[in-house]
Amino acid sequence: MIPIYRGNTYMMTKQIVLVSILIFGGCLSGCRKHKALSGAHPAEFVGKWQLLIRSSCDQYSLRSDTMVIRSDGTFDQAVATKDGHSISQNGQHWQYFLDKDRGDISLEKRLEFFTPEHFGNKTDEGHAVSEMLIVDHGGASPVIVLNPDSDCVYVKAE
Question: Residue 43 above 80 pLDDT?
Answer without folding.
Answer: yes
